[in-house]
């Protein structure tokens, strides 16, 4: 089965997704860059980033930048964001915008807290999946069956979920004389649950920790980063990695995935070829909710309790990772890692380390400016000029101060979200029919 793919911005489409413009537009540049990102190039980018991070640590003496504890925290922060982003990817690849990821995470976190203190963390994870899936089912009924605007439905689910979990927390956790209240629960949180099991590679973890303590250039930095992946890693994190890999193979390497993605590109064409578009949209949105619910459960299991307002906007950041990742699982994972790193940085390292990042961002913006100038277009030159101006401002800030105010440190994950999306905007391509209403037989 094949579907029409819209031409990218900056080129004139011929109906088959082939641009016949002059090749100098931003879309043409983005397409050339995308084609060059083979696995060796990606590995070179990762190696360059590691060298740059090591140089920054040496120059600024900010050892937290490559500490194993920093990356352990980043991994824990990235998993719920990544699962929410992957959930959004499933829905939008089938043509349904899922703004309700935040609400579905709330439902998953509450369900995990309710079940977890009674039956343990694995039961909590399963309950979180079910809670999120119920939210996804509600969104599917509203958007697919009744044709409600996707944005309106998603916002309504976020508001509804917040009210539901707060009411049920008062009813089940905070009721005077209840078993939950006697076990330590109240109207803002659930009773504590048991720890989720973790795994460690004993010899390798100890060896990497020993190398990290020497603070050797590059070697210790690499040891610190790798140490986070072999020391006390939650089995839920391993499950999340498996889910990402399975999603890629299922959506891009199976007939099921081809049919599901066709519903997001051209549902009318898919229908004419015998695809039950409603079924695939329902399946995608329910899976989307289940993944977001698992992300919410991860938050509750990680701190052993459900707490009011526990998701903290991670559903929205997950949506940003989906866009940054260009609606691909690998891109979502990279975006979640970046936002998780920044989230962990503002929690663990504070002002001095974030202050060191000002220098890194300034250098990266200069690199962006050089890359934009290669495009040769007027818009690219303007963007290059803006990048240079911002880079100079950051350098002035870095050399004239010793730390970053706490208020800005707390803003770091959200500022990163805006910067990354603004820089990645030109290479993005959403599914062609995402958010558009569909009715069976409308193409006949």
TrEMBL record:
Membrane topology: Multi-pass membrane protein
Keyword Transmembrane helix: yes
Transmembrane region(s): 41-59, 71-89, 96-117, 123-144, 151-169, 233-252, 282-306, 354-373, 380-399
Xref: CDD domains: TM_PBP1_transp_TpRbsC_like
Keyword list, A-Z: Cell membrane, Membrane, Transmembrane, Transmembrane helix
Biased composition (Gly residues): 12-25
Pfam families per UniProt: BPD_transp_2
GO MF entries: transmembrane transporter activity
Compartments where located: Cell membrane
Cross-referenced InterPro entries: ABC_transp_permease (IPR001851)
Ranges where the record places region Disordered: 1-25
GO cellular component entries: plasma membrane
Record-linked PANTHER family: GUANOSINE ABC TRANSPORTER PERMEASE PROTEIN NUPQ (PTHR43370:SF1), SUGAR ABC TRANSPORTER INTEGRAL MEMBRANE PROTEIN-RELATED (PTHR43370)
Protein name per UniProt: ABC transporter permease
Species the sequence originates in: Streptomyces daliensis
């Amino acid at each position: 089965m094949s579907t029409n793919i819209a031409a990218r911005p900056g080129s004139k489409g011929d109906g088959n997704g082939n641009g016949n413009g002059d090749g100098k537009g931003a879309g043409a540049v983005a397409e050339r860059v995308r084609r060059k990102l083979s696995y060796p190039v990606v590995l070179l980018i990762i190696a360059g980033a590691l060298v740059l991070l090591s140089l920054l640590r040496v120059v600024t003496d900010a050892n937290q930048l490559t500490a194993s504890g920093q990356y352990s925290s980043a991994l824990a922060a990235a998993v719920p964001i990544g699962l929410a982003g992957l959930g959004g990817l499933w829905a939008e690849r089938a043509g349904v915008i899922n703004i309700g990821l935040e609400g579905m995470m709330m439902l998953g976190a509450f369900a995990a807290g309710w079940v977890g203190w009674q039956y343990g963390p694995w039961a909590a994870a399963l309950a979180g999946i079910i809670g999120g899936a119920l939210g996804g089912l509600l969104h599917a009924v509203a958007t697919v069956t009744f044709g409600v605007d996707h944005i309106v439905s998603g916002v309504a689910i976020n508001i509804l979920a917040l009210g539901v979990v707060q009411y049920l927390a008062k009813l089940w956790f905070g009721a005077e004389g209840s078993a939950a209240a006697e076990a330590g629960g109240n109207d803002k949180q659930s009773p504590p649950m048991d720890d989720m099991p973790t795994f460690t590679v004993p010899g390798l973890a100890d060896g990497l920790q020993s190398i990290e303590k020497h603070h050797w250039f590059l070697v210790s930095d690499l040891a610190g980063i790798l140490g986070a992946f072999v020391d006390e890693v939650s089995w839920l994190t391993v499950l999340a990695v498996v889910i990402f890999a399975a999603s890629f193979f299922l959506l891009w390497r199976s007939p099921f995935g081809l049919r599901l993605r066709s519903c997001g590109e051209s549902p009318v064409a898919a229908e004419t070829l015998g695809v039950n578009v409603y079924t695939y949209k329902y399946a995608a949105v329910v899976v989307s909710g289940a993944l977001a619910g698992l992300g919410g459960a991860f938050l509750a299991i990680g701190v052993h309790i459900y707490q009011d307002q526990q998701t903290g906007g991670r559903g929205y950041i997950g949506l940003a990772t989906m866009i940054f990742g260009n609606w691909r699982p690998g891109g979502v994972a990279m975006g979640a890692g970046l936002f998780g790193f920044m989230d962990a940085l503002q929690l663990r390292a504070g002002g001095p380390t974030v202050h060191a990042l000002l220098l890194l961002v300034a250098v990266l913006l200069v690199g962006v400016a050089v890359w934009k100038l290669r495009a040769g277009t007027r818009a690219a030159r303007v963007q290059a000029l803006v990048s240079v101006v911002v880079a100079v401002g950051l350098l002035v800030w870095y050399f004239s101060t010793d730390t970053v105010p706490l208020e800005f440190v707390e803003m770091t994950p959200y500022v990163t979200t805006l910067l990354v999306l603004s820089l990645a905007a030109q290479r993005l391509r959403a599914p062609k029919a995402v958010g558009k209403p569909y009715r069976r037989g409308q193409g006949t």
